[in-house]
Amino acid sequence: MLSKYSLCNGHGTRAPAKAFSKTDEMKELVDADTSDTHTLHLHLKAKQLLDNGRVMDAWKALLM
Question: What domain of life does the native source organism fall in (predicted)?
Fold first, then answer.
């Protein structure tokens, strides 16, 4: 089973997900989001990323 730290740099940090969260693509999503819909929007973004073959980015979006 893949844990939320499986995508990390081997030192137990979430650096890749944190860096991805600072991209314009994800900042735009998070800034426009409210707490009630945050999880839904992240899941929809992850689905969009998966549909475009961006598996690692989809995981990073879910870790935000």
Answer: Bacteria
Residues 55-60, mean pLDDT to the nearest whole number: 93
- Residue 30 to residue 51: CA distance in whole angstroms: 20
Half-sphere exposure of 4 (CA within 13 A, CB side): 9
41 within 8 A of 33, measured Cβ to Cβ = yes
The owner of tokens 């730290």 is 5
The pTM score is 0.53
> What is the H or E stretch that residue 33 is in?
none
The structure tokens 């314009």 sit at: 24
Start-end of H helices in the chain: 15-21, 24-31, 38-51, 55-63
Read off the pLDDT of residues 13-50 as tens digits, 9 standing for 90 and up.
Answer: 567 778 887 888 777 777 765 666 778 888 999 999 99
